[in-house]
Amino acid sequence: MHLLATTNGGLESVAAGEIDDLVGRDASIHHRGVVEFDGDVEDVYDLHYRGRTLHRIMAVLADGVVEELADVYELTASAPVEARLPSSDFGVVGTRHGDHEFTSVDVAERVGQAVIDAYRDAAGTRLPVDLDDPTVKLEAYLYDDRFTLAVDLTGESLHKRPYRICEHDAPVRGTLAYAMLRIAGWTPTDRLVDPMAGSATIPTEAALAATGAVPRPDLEPSFGALPGYDVDRFRRRRDAYADPPSGPGTTRGGSPADRPSTGGALDASALDIEAREIRSRWRRCARVNREAAGLEDAFDVVDADAREASIDADRVVTNLPFGVRTGTDLRELYGAFVDRLEAGDIGRLVALTTSPELLPVEPTERYNIPYGRLDAAIVVWEP
């Protein structure tokens, strides 16, 4: 079957790399923030408990070229909706980009009517519609002349990590934090320092990946309501991965551990990860989240000023502050921070910032991403 996966916009290549690592599938960009690939039910299960850069996974019901609204209806009506959808309430979200004489709402309405008609013709039953909290959520994408209809398999987004009990004022998503670790090329045997850690999302995501922990152990996926999926089998696979057999040479669930990886999940106490934060409020927050993730032994939370503390690390990965009152203050902060990097011994810096122009270094790589309503960039620098 053909699948879609959503991720952080601008980081589609990173998500595609993770999909390849986890299930051996070649993913490409469908549109910004969405990748597409061929897979099977087992891939769906694996990605839901092992994927760390992904938000939602969807199964494609219809895909083709359209010129007008009537084509949207016909393409949807020809899809095997009776075989792929349950006899449950559904809702449609329409997304349209390009030059059209109709709106996203029009697309969603045409899709909804086609689903109702096709299901009734095939099964003799009229599906109920629930636009607020549907059992089955359909995503209708129209980008220029390409129309894709997919059913959401995930439900609540995978980026909503359960350890996020104490939130920073400007939090970074766990999926984005892990993508930054992948960009950094970090492995669990590397020394990792986050000099401005806030509530410690980046160190926590690193430790979760290194120890092989399931990022969303609390997830009840939407595919449990769909025909062709076995949610009990999914839970058994997830539990086996989370609780591997003990003894030398064993790995989680009998599968290769997630990248970054050394080939197997490590004990938390073997990691060399440091979360530095100058503000006591956020250090307390970081410790709360670390405990919620069950990672008390995985990394240290340290009182340190990024403008003054020396840095020696294989990888420095951080979310640079952007809420300082003036641009001059930010320039001073960024400059002093880079001075510490240059005076120390680091392998690679990966930093998220809304003001990349204030960094007094020339990045070797740059990924432009949305950060809420702001434009931001992930920059990579190697001394």
Secondary-structure blueprint:
Layout: E1 2-7, H1 12-23, E2 28-31, E3 34-38, H2 41-50, E4 54-65, H3 69-77, H4 81-84, E5 90-97, H5 104-123, E6 136-143, E7 146-152, H6 174-184, E8 191-194, H7 201-210, H8 231-242, E9 272-276, H9 280-292, E10 300-302, E11 312-319, H10 327-343, E12 345-353, E13 365-371, E14 374-381
Parallel strand pairs: 5-6, 8-9, 8-11, 9-10, 11-12
Antiparallel strand pairs: 1-3, 1-4, 2-3, 4-7, 6-7, 12-14, 13-14
Helix pairs in contact: 3-5, 6-7
Domain THUMP: 42-153
InterPro entries: RlmKL-like_Mtase (IPR000241), RlmL_1st (IPR054170), SAM-dependent_MTases_sf (IPR029063), THUMP_dom (IPR004114)
EC number: 2.1.1.256
Instruction: Give the second-level CATH assignment, the architecture of the largest domain.
Output: 3-Layer(aba) Sandwich
Structural class of the secondary elements? alpha/beta
Fraction in beta strands: 15-25%
Which fold name fills CATH's third level, the topology of the largest domain? Rossmann fold
CATH homologous superfamily classification of the largest domain: Vaccinia Virus protein VP39
- Terminus-to-terminus distance: 45 Å
> What gyration radius follows from the Cα positions, in whole Å?
23 Å
User: Can you tell me the overall shape?
Assistant: elongated
* CATH class group of the largest domain: Alpha Beta
If helices are DSSP runs of H or I spanning 4 or more residues, what is the number of helices?
10
- Which strands sit side by side, in order, in the main sheet? 2-3-1-4-7-6-5
Write down the secondary-structure element order: EHEEHEHHEHEEHEHHEHEEHEEE
Main sheet makeup: 7 strands, mixed
Mean pLDDT: 91
Estimate the helix proportion, in percent.
25-40%
Q: Total domains, how many?
A: 2
Low-confidence spans: 246-263
Topology, number of strands: 14
EC number: 2.1.1.256
Organism: Natronomonas moolapensis (strain DSM 18674 / CECT 7526 / JCM 14361 / 8.8.11)
Keywords: Methyltransferase, RNA-binding, Transferase
GO molecular function: RNA binding; rRNA (guanine-N2-)-methyltransferase activity; rRNA (guanine-N7-)-methyltransferase activity; tRNA (guanine(6)-N2)-methyltransferase activity
